[in-house]
From TrEMBL:
UniProtKB keywords: DNA-binding
Transmembrane segments: none
GO molecular function: DNA binding
The protein's name: DNA-binding CsgD family transcriptional regulator
SMART domains: HTH_LUXR
InterPro entries tied to this protein: Sig_transdc_resp-reg_C-effctor, Tscrpt_reg_LuxR_C, WH-like_DNA-bd_sf
Any one GO BP annotation for this protein: regulation of DNA-templated transcription
Length: 363
């Protein structure tokens, strides 16, 4: 086995994107070493009582696997005492005076075709520990064991990259759930208002609203020409580097949709177009009528109070909300006092916070 003869290292680094993980690498390693089996086992950093087992080669018979769980419960070999990065032979791990280890060897390893073994322990900087092993009915040469050791730093790097990817996937999933619950999305635009990239929430908002859509040549196209011109001018000013500040625009009131258009300063080589602006969208998935009914159910508001409460939650002043709903300002003020009493809010700012952080945000 040589590390410079083509695709072994390539398969190691690409293996974190495969399913099952590292399958090509283990198959190549098994073939290059003449092993019957090649395995990579690691214990996740957040669960030291479980392990992920990846292997290439003939799967041990089911009765032997059942024997492992019934009689031995866990591998009795002292894997955790292995020195990191050193290749061990099976004889170095077996204690001839330990009856459990000898039974494990004779009843499980030998019938599985694992009479001889070379294994090493690798620990990446975040604390995830892995064991890379090859096994066969025939012994391995010293050259194969030495060359296996050369793989240690490469496996460590691959494992570290995998752990980093998994953590980012987890963080992304948590963030995505939070954004989805708040009905937020984002998309980036180039200087011609073409959509460069977007998240799934923005895509759903575009699909269901009709207020914003993908037009010809992937251009973001608002339904209202005035909004289209306003966004286009903002994007052009960002492209010219004029240092404009982010601008919030309400583009629909029922269902509610707001956008914030801001300069985009990050750069990426992964797209054909250069984004110059990022557009954040918040769109309600419910109509105003749905929201009124939910406020009635949640806080015991009267329908007229619910309509005013929802208008105020969208940032309208009492006077503005009264005008929109066809109420006098005095009537709206009387309603607002009842709304504050029923919701426990001590003013409009607290009312907005109460409504938008209630279970309405999850509806």
């Amino acid at each position: 086995m040589r590390l410079d003869d083509g695709d072994l290292l390539t398969s190691l680094y690409e293996g974190m994107f495969e399913q099952p993980l590292w399958q090509s690498f283990l198959e190549k390693l098994r073939a290059r070493t003449g092993a019957s089996y090649a395995t990579l086992i690691f214990r996740p950093i957040d669960d030291q009582n479980s392990f992920v087992e990846l292997y290439a080669g003939k799967r041990p018979p089911e009765h032997l696997r059942q024997l492992f769980f019934e009689k031995f419960e866990r591998d009795p070999l002292p894997h955790r005492q292995m020195r990191e990065g050193r290749v061990y032979a099976l004889t170095e791990l077996l204690d001839p005076d330990n009856a459990t280890q000898q039974a494990f060897y004779e009843e499980l390893l030998v019938p599985s075709g694992m009479r001889y073994l070379r294994t090493m322990r690798i620990t990446e900087p975040n604390g995830v520990t892995a064991w890379l092993s090859i096994a066969s009915d025939r012994d391995f040469s010293a050259a194969i064991a030495a060359r296996l050791a050369v793989l240690a730093p490469h496996v460590r790097i691959a494992l570290r990259s995998f752990v980093a990817l998994e953590r980012e996937r987890f963080r992304s999933a948590v963030t995505s759930r939070a954004i989805r619950n708040l009905n937020f999305g984002w998309l980036t635009l180039d200087a011609q208002c073409r959509i460069v990239d977007s998240d799934e929430h923005a895509e759903r908002l575009l699909e269901r609203s009709g207020i914003l859509k993908r037009g010809r040549y992937n251009r973001l196209t608002p339904a209202l020409p005035a909004i289209d011109r306003e966004i286009a001018e903002l994007v052009r000013s960002f492209a010219r580097g004029e240092g404009g500040r982010p601008k919030a625009i309400n583009i629909n009131r029922d269902p509610w949709m707001d956008i914030l258009v801001a300069p985009f300063s990050e750069r990426s080589v992964s797209t054909n177009y250069t984004p110059v602006a990022i557009l954040y969208l918040r769109g309600d998935s419910q109509s105003n009528v749905d929201r009124y009914e939910q406020l009635v159910d949640l806080f015991g508001l009267l329908p007229s109070e619910a309509r005013l409460a929802w208008a105020m939650a969208q940032g309208l002043s009492i006077a503005e909300a009264a005008k929109e709903l066809g109420l006098s300002v005095e009537t709206a003020r009387n309603y607002s006092k009842k709304i504050y009493a029923k919701t426990g809010a001590r003013g409009q700012a607290e009312l907005v916070r109460t409504l938008l952080t209630s279970v309405l945000a999850l509806a």
